[in-house]
Design goal:
Helices cover 20% and strands 25% of the residues. The protein is built from 6 helices and 15 strands. Strands 7, 8, 9, 10, 11, 12, 13, 14 and 15 form a 9-stranded mixed beta sheet that branches. A 4-stranded antiparallel beta sheet has the order 3-2-5-6. A two-stranded antiparallel ribbon has the order 1-4. Helix 3 packs across helix 6. The longest helix is centred in the last third of the chain and has 11 residues. The protein is elongated, with a radius of gyration of 22 Å. It binds uracil.
């Protein structure tokens, strides 16, 4: 939302988590909503969230501009805001003030790990831009024999089954059938497809970091917490960096 922009009172109240559109309408009819001290019976009125004083049941409704959460996504939950079959990641963030959070990028249904949820569209756009080359680190458990020249091939960029070439990626073997893969892009099922080219099948995948943002080891699958100001500052700096060719 732009500074000092105006918006409908009902939209504002819904976004701030006061209730659904019909609930806030009902509250307003009963005189429970006030704008600058006066009862607002018509929720279609325009307000300026930064300038007007809105109260619900006598309590000021604070304008929460943007929210940022780190989630350890569990398997079985979809990286989306709605799904007809599975629970979605935004349902897991119970403390969110705003109703317009969305996941920054996607992890597969069976992938676990770091997922950023926010309503800051600009930051999300910058972090996801294929031209930013934000490093993502994944823990990979696989079946099959990882070839001796696998790390070199990843470093050089490999051709996926659809003919596209991946940007240089870094592989670090971490024991038997387990490694850490750092990629700079986010193609559909990218890690699984890269491993597939080498003849390996991913059996477990977890994202550990995205740029400077590292998954908090204290978060169990399904747990989340707001980003600290340091984490947010570092991410914003990253997003503000120069775009690169390709
Ligand atoms: N690569 C994949 O194959 N799946 C994910 O969820 C993320 C990266």
């Amino acid at each position: 939302m732009m500074k000092h922009s105006s918006m409908r009172l009902d939209k504002f109240l819904v976004e701030m988590g006061i209730g659904s559109r019909s609930q806030v309408k009902e509250m307003a009819k009963k005189g429970r909503i006030r704008v600058n001290g006066a009862a607002a019976s018509d929720t279609s009125m325009k307000i300026s969230p930064q300038q007007d004083m809105v109260e619900a049941d006598g309590r000021p409704v604070a304008y929460a501009a943007v929210e940022y959460y780190m989630l350890n996504k569990p398997a079985g939950v979809v990286s989306a805001t709605e799904d007809s079959r599975y629970p979605v990641v935004t349902d897991l963030i119970e403390t969110a003030v705003r109703r317009d959070l969305f996941p920054v990028g996607r992890l597969d249904l069976d992938t676990e790990g770091l997922l950023l949820l926010t309503n800051d569209g600009d930051l999300a756009h910058r972090l996801l831009s294929p031209r930013r080359h934000v490093d993502k680190v994944y823990e990979v458990v696989y079946e099959g024999i990882f070839p001796k020249d696998g790390a070199r091939r990843f470093e050089e960029g490999i051709i996926l089954e659809d003919g596209t070439r991946t940007l240089p990626a870094h592989w670090k073997q971490e024991g038997d059938r387990r490694g850490l893969l750092t990629i700079q892009e986010g193609k559909f099922h990218q890690v699984k497809r890269m491993m597939e080219v080498l003849g390996c099948r991913v059996t477990y995948l977890k994202r550990l970091s995205m740029g400077s943002l590292k998954l908090d080891a204290a978060l169990k699958p399904g747990d989340y917490r707001p980003l600290t100001s340091e984490e947010l500052e570092a991410l914003k700096k990253e997003g503000a960096g120069k775009e690169q060719e390709t």
